[in-house]
Design a protein that fits this description.
Length: about 270
């Protein structure tokens, strides 16, 4: 009798496990389907094109020029800005603050920002509940006046959306294409180009998520640490006059993270 009872309990647990797993799979597919609908909505709302440099039309500034003219910085200062009209995007979601593109990946998304770092973990761009979330900026950052470290987050999804393709930056193939080593970020006030200087995988932590520093010494140590972590040598200089951009996403279900750091090298209107 006792063995039969234990067997029934085990079978019941097994069945419940199957039901829960099936339910979670269904929810995942529904979220994925809805996310792709929102992405289509977003793509229809904004027309994206690179802007060729025209000194008569674009006012731009090179940021924190290195003294060494052989510095890799100078390879990327001619990179084209993104041209983004935020009008239609704002009609869908007033939380949108910028638009990001990461060459060598499929990351081309509007970036949102709210009063915490939780809401867009579970809400899509149209603010519908969705575990796929959306690409969002750390609530501590100023989207228009960059701090020491501006952070943008996104989920890793098996359907390839959000920040999933950032895993490309850990491959030799991605690194060998030098055209991949920048990030383009545009907002309503200005367009910016950021030069990547570090990519790596790391266990979950909060150190690289600091947005500002009490002293130049602490910021210098931080930048040196971030550069040392990189799995590739980008041969890029970085110092306390630099503003940096950090992208963070999950690497696996154990909590490990993929992290990208880039420094601001060019901005324009």
């Amino acid at each position: 009798m006792q063995k039969q009872l234990i067997l029934k309990i085990l079978v019941s647990i097994f069945i419940i496990g199957i039901i829960i797993s099936t339910f979670n799979i269904m929810i995942w597919f529904i979220d994925s389907k809805n996310t792709k609908k929102v992405i289509t909505l977003v793509n229809d709302a904004v027309k994206i094109k690179d802007v060729k440099e025209d000194i008569n039309k674009i006012t731009y500034e090179l940021v924190n020029l290195p003294d060494d003219k052989n510095d890799s910085y100078y390879k990327y200062i001619n990179s084209d800005f993104l041209n983004i009209d935020f009008t239609e995007l704002k009609k869908i979601n007033s939380d949108v603050v910028s638009y990001i593109e990461v060459p060598g990946t499929s990351v081309k998304y509007p970036v949102v920002k709210t009063t915490d770092n939780k809401y867009y973990l579970r809400h899509s761009f149209d603010k519908s509940y969705n575990k796929a979330g959306w690409i969002f900026m750390d609530y501590r950052n100023d989207a228009y006046d960059y701090q020491n470290n501006t952070i943008i987050y996104g989920h890793k999804r098996n359907d390839g959306t959000m920040f999933t393709s950032l895993k490309n930056v850990l491959t030799e193939e991605w690194f060998k294409n030098e055209d991949n080593r920048i990030i383009k970020l545009a907002n309503e006030k200005e367009n910016t180009i950021w030069q990547i200087f570090s990519v790596y995988k790391i266990e979950q932590e909060s150190y690289y998520l600091a947005t500002k520093f009490k002293t130049d010494k602490l910021y210098k140590e931080f930048l040196e640490d971030m550069q040392k972590r990189s799995i590739f040598d980008f041969k890029a200089s970085v110092n306390i006059q630099d503003k940096i951009l950090t992208l963070s996403t999950c690497y696996d279900y154990k909590g490990n993270r993929i992290v990208i750091h880039a420094k601001l090298i060019k901005k324009g209107k």
